[in-house]
Design a protein that fits this description.
heterodimer; A: 370 residues; Rossmann fold; OB fold (Dihydrolipoamide Acetyltransferase, E2P); six-stranded mixed sheet; five-stranded antiparallel sheet; B: MetI-like fold; two-stranded antiparallel ribbon; 4 strands; globular
Chain lengths: 370, 732
């Protein structure tokens, strides 16, 4: 699975002229002096899909985006846009647009002037530029706001103007740099769905940077998880969620518990593992044996009040009620376990001993010897 | 990209074919070369005519290089190959022009002639081919405008700062026979007249180097302490006229530096007002005691205390009130809080104030000139070595070298001190709490000091403004307009206005030259600031250090170096207005640079990037986004560089000519002739004009902006101020 998750870059690079690949990153490295910001990263992005770069701060995701934009120079490797090598082209020459975290609306221009800016700079007559800018504004539902100044708009509206401004240039690739991080939580979902809607409607190729895994899951066709300047895993949201490639992805994407277990038998891509005396079936294509690390998602743990005859028990050390679910922290022989339970009616108090079982899904082997 | 490189190549071809290659005796813009017969008149001819009609075969390689570059542009080369070729052509062209200009003997040419606009355009063309080639290879993310600007600024600084200073270095090694000699350099650098310590051991005078250092240290110590008193009074006492104290900081900007010295003569000289009074009351014989160390020191302290105040007010305000409140809640008294918490936090600011005034004092020319008497310092010694009875360029150069090294050491110390130890505890955003008041006794003491010093300053400026209306100070104190009529008389004759006053000519020259220099200074300063704040490029820190370093060069040294460097081909500028303009541009660039850096740090970088992503070129971004948002900062930079040009003296005293005399050098001339009345009248006129300029601009761009500008001046030598890049909405 893990191997298949990296679409063959060699092939992609040579076939980049094929119509379905929009952007190729080919063994790209970025160094600032001796500090490596992006380390030998390769991926390709199909036309019309939204790909998210996600990872903790400092993982190199924003630098990667800015290299696509042409705002940062590439140290090694190359970038292909529709099969054309753009590695040494300046940002102006590349057919990409970007939406900034801070919106970056020009404060001395009206909304309409902002949206028309890229068009007039490109040499379009003012009248035509304004017409197309208006079209762009209608697309984001702000057709009536043209004459206002950006400072007279709310944060969500400003971000939509920024999107419209980037879209009117009809770029090959739309880049979004943490576009929602300056919005409050409720607005965030709304604008997120709107951006995804426009992307699907116009069949745009988009690269989206965020540090929020939930946001990434919600908008993406594919997710590229980055860690320590490299790609940790590249795949669909479901791939990542169900078969995280390593402990980092399991922790970052699924917020999973990492426990030790023993893989005993392997058959048809599935292994029989024992975790703290409980036997479970876990998918594993690598057929790892012996001591393995297993990621257990918080929702894949089942608690029972029965402690007799249970091979694995634990004590509730922390419990909180979140309305639609319960969150528990358990002290167990495997270490601390974080559990989310949808049963909000039968809850366990602090200090209570409970029996622990595992669901059929939500477990994955993330480390061990092949 | 192709277009602009093609444009430069076309311009180079045009320059080679049709623009005079050599300097024009009558001036390029006089246009006499247009009507001259180029086949006959060698001097007026373009490079093409020189080659065809005058047998100057050495110019052919230039044509070859331009042709090669044109071929590279038109041929279907790869980006990389084209870039490499342009770099090669650019480097070769510049190198060849340098040899042509500086070492024509290598090419078998005879005596040199100054190079003209033809050569200038071709050189610029080669420079931009080189930078364009770098951009093609991916430098600065392939942005030709940025590489071009970096190249241009490096070239300008090399040509107009490094080259002249290099000339000074070289001149110091040349012995009277014109030969290179380490011995004569060593002799000059260790001259008894420079380094003698006779004033300490056995009677006599000390060397000028010691004089300079002693004066600078005395001035700086005093200015720093007075500046601290002012800053404490303004921020931590209930003193009633705080606002007017802040206005004091305007004074050094609008006052020509030697005016204070002049006023001191009127007050304390042999015929001074105070001297006369004291003589009358106490029967003390009037003396010339004000001439010498004391007079210069007093005038410098008067002139530079506001600068120290300006530096310190930011620092004193910058100490977070919460730190002081914390100290008090821990049981410290007000005095203990000041002594053990606040003052230590201000240390870097104090060091900065000391060094800034130290540098100012060393570089000061006007006051030692007017008041020094027999107490000579380096800047005046340099002047007399150039214009004195026996011209000794070697001595001037070596003294300049000593002064330069003092200034550079002080500058480096200052940067070092401030680089690592910035204790500013406030980020410029609102901080709760109030500064702790001073202990009552201490507050009373420093308030008294401040009031006395302020009154003294007011008296001095009163002398300046009233001095022009008196026949002759001390002898005939009756009212007259004689001096003003003498200087600024106007006749309404048949043919319109006749400017009969003697000062008009230099006044208009000053205004014109400063008026031309100001926009150039502001543009160059803003561009450099933009490169430093916004662009990343190889060796940027070296570039930044280099630019800052250039500005540490004292005015006197710049003046000497300019006449030494531009008296001879290939760039002959002595006696022109251009040399004055260049001097102002490179002297005043720090004002624009600092203002630009501070203002630009306030603009969110993503605004530029957004513009870039919308496919606007860097030039368009600068024009449509950055310039409109920086308008107030640019206006301020314009006015300040204008005002500074008008009031400066140290560098231009070497560069003025009969045709281009400046207001300040004219006034110094009046003083030397003993025409104090007219000098004072002219000075007060200048002060009034400058004051109205500054006030007018304050009105224009709003008070808040100017206050921010004050902040900028506080951060005198911190180029990379970590201001949070927030664009305040209400500021737009």
């Amino acid at each position: 699975m893990n191997h298949a998750a990296h679409p063959g870059v060699e092939n992609a690079a040579s076939n980049a002229k094929a119509n379905d690949i929009s952007l190729v990153f080919d063994q790209v490295t970025k160094k600032y002096g001796r500090v490596v910001a992006v380390d030998n990263v390769s991926f390709s992005i199909p036309r019309g899909s939204l790909v998210t770069l996600v990872g903790p701060s400092g993982c190199g995701k924003t630098t990667t985006l800015r290299m696509i934009a042409g705002l940062e120079a590439v140290t090694e490797g190359r970038i292909l846009l529709n099969g054309e090598n753009v590695t040494h082209q300046s940002a102006i020459e590349r057919d990409v647009s970007m939406v900034f975290q801070s919106y970056a609306l020009f404060p001395h221009m009206t909304v309409l002037e902002n949206v028309a800016y890229g068009l007039t700079v490109g040499g379009l007559p003012t009248r035509e530029a304004n017409q197309r800018a208006l079209d762009g504004l209608s697309l984001v539902g702000l057709a009536d706001y043209g004459p206002r100044l950006p400072s007279e708009l709310s944060g969500g509206q400003q971000q939509r103007v920024a999107v419209a401004r980037a879209l009117v240039l009809e770029p090959q690739v739309l880049l979004l740099d943490e576009p929602l991080s300056n919005l409050d939580t409720k607005l965030r979902r709304h604008v997120r769905d709107e951006i995804r809607g426009i992307q699907l409607k116009l069949n745009l190729t988009a690269v989206y940077v965020t540090h929020d895994q939930e946001e990434a899951m919600a908008v993406s066709d594919q997710i590229i998880v980055m860690n320590k300047q490299r790609i940790a895993q590249h795949g669909t949201p479901r791939d990542l969620f169900e078969t995280p490639a390593d402990e980092f992805v399991a922790d970052f994407i699924c917020n999973a518990n990492l426990v030790s277990g023993e893989a005993q038998r392997h058959e048809a891509g599935r292994s029989e593992c024992v975790i703290g005396g409980v036997t479970v079936i876990v998918p594993d294509r690598k057929a790892r044996r012996g001591d393995v690390r297993i990621a257990v998602r918080p929702d894949a743990i089942r608690l029972t009040g029965e402690t007799d005859n249970q091979p694995l028990c634990g004590e509730i050390v922390y419990a909180s009620f979140l309305g639609t679910e319960m969150q528990y922290t358990l002290q167990t022989p495997l270490g601390e376990l974080f559990v989310r339970s949808s049963d909000v009616f039968n809850t366990y108090p602090l200090g209570r001993r409970v029996g622990i079982g595992f669901a059929d899904h939500g477990l994955a082997i993330v480390g061990g010897n092949a | 990209m192709k277009k602009s490189l093609g444009g430069w190549l076309a311009l180079m071809a045009f320059a080679l074919a049709l623009v005079p290659w050599h300097q024009q005796e009558a001036g390029f813009f006089a246009g006499r070369w247009l009507s001259a017969d180029w086949s006959d008149k060698k001097d007026a001819a373009s490079a093409l005519f020189l080659m065809l009609k005058h047998g100057q075969a050495v110019l052919w390689p230039l044509v070859g290089l331009v042709a090669a570059a044109t071929a590279a542009l038109l041929a279907p080369f790869s980006r990389r190959a084209r870039g490499l070729l342009f770099i090669a052509v650019g480097v070769a062209g510049i190198a060849y022009l340098l040899v042509l200009g500086f070492r024509p003997g290598w090419l078998g040419l005879g005596p040199q002639v100054g190079l003209g606009y033809g050569a200038l355009l071709v050189a610029a063309g080669f420079l931009f081919l080189l930078t364009g080639g770098c951009a093609l290879l991916g430098a600065c993310r392939g942005d030709m405008f940025v590489t071009g600007m970096i190249g241009l600024i490096i070239a300008l600084i090399s040509l107009f700062v490094i080259m002249p200073v290099g000339h000074v270095l070289a001149k110091a090694f040349v012995d009277p026979e014109g030969l290179f000699s380490v011995g004569s350099w060593f002799g000059r650098m260790t001259d008894q007249r420079t380094w003698g310590l006779n004033c300490v051991f056995g009677g006599g005078r000390c060397g000028v180097a010691w004089n300079t250092l002693y004066l600078a240290a005395a001035t700086a110590t005093c200015c720093m302490l007075l500046g601290l008193c002012f800053a404490l009074v303004v921020t931590r006492t209930g003193f009633r006229w705080k606002g007017s104290l802040r206005a004091l900081t305007l004074l050094p900007i609008i006052t020509p530096p030697f005016v204070i010295g002049l006023a001191l003569i009127l007050l304390l000289g042999r015929n001074g007002a105070l001297t006369t009074l004291v003589a009358h009351w106490f029967g003390v014989a009037p003396g010339r005691w004000v001439y010498g160390f004391f007079g210069v020191w007093l005038s410098q302290v008067l002139a530079y205390t506001p600068i120290a105040f300006m530096v310190l007010i930011g620092v004193v305000e910058g100490v977070s009130p919460s730190v002081e409140e914390a100290s008090q809640t821990l049981g410290a008294s007000r005095w203990q809080t000041l002594w053990r918490v606040s003052l230590p936090l201000m240390k870097p600011g104090l060091a900065n104030a000391f060094l800034v005034t130290f540098i100012e004092s060393m570089a000061d020319f006007g006051n030692p000139m007017v008041l020094g008497g027999s107490y000579s310092v380096l800047s005046t010694e340099i002047y007399f070595a150039i214009v004195g009875a026996q011209t000794d360029e070697g001595r001037a150069a070596s003294l300049g070298l000593i002064l330069l090294s003092f200034a550079v050491i002080a500058f480096l110390l200052q940067r070092r001190w401030l680089g690592n130890k910035s204790y500013a505890t406030v980020t410029g955003k609102a901080d709760n709490g109030q500064h702790v008041a001073l202990s009552p006794l201490f507050a009373r003491v420093i308030t008294t000091v401040v009031v006395i010093w302020t009154s003294f300053t007011i008296v001095i400026y009163g002398m300046v403004l009233s001095g022009g209306f008196v026949h002759q100070w001390g002898r005939d104190n009756s009212f007259t307009l004689r001096h003003y009529i003498n200087a600024f008389g106007i006749d309404f004759g048949q043919h319109g206005i006749n400017w009969t006053g003697t000062a008009w000519s230099s006044f208009f020259t000053s205004m014109t030259i400063a008026g031309i220099a100001a926009p150039l200074t502001a543009t160059l300063g803003m561009m450099t600031a933009w490169l430093l704040v916004r662009q990343k490029f190889a060796l940027k820190s070296l570039f930044e250090f280099g630019t800052m370093m250039c500005f540490a060069v004292p005015g006197t040294v710049i003046g000497v170096s300019y006449i030494l460097a531009y008296n001879v081909p290939p760039i002959e500028l002595t006696g022109t207005g251009l040399i004055l303009i260049l001097c102002f541009v490179f002297r005043n660039m720090p004002t624009g640079l600092r203002g630009g850096i501070a203002a630009m740090s306030q603009l969110d970088k993503s605004l530029d990037e957004a513009s870039t992503m919308l496919r606007a070129s860097s030039f368009t971004t600068a024009r449509r986004i950055i310039f409109p948002l920086l308008k107030p900062a640019i206006t301020t930079a314009l006015v300040y560089s204008f005002v500074r040009s008008i009031t400066s003296i140290s560098a231009i005293i070497f560069l003025v000519s009969a045709k281009y005399d400046m207001a300040t050098s004219y006034i110094i001339g009046l003083v030397e002739n003993g025409q104090y009345g007219t000098a004072i009248a002219y000075s007060s006129m200048l002060i009034v004009v400058m004051l109205s300029c500054v006030i007018g601009v304050q009105k224009l761009v709003g008070r808040r902006r100017l206050r921010r500008q004050d902040r900028v001046l506080n951060d005198l030598d911190k180029p990379s101020i970590p201001v949070k890049p927030i664009l305040q909405k209400e500021a737009i």
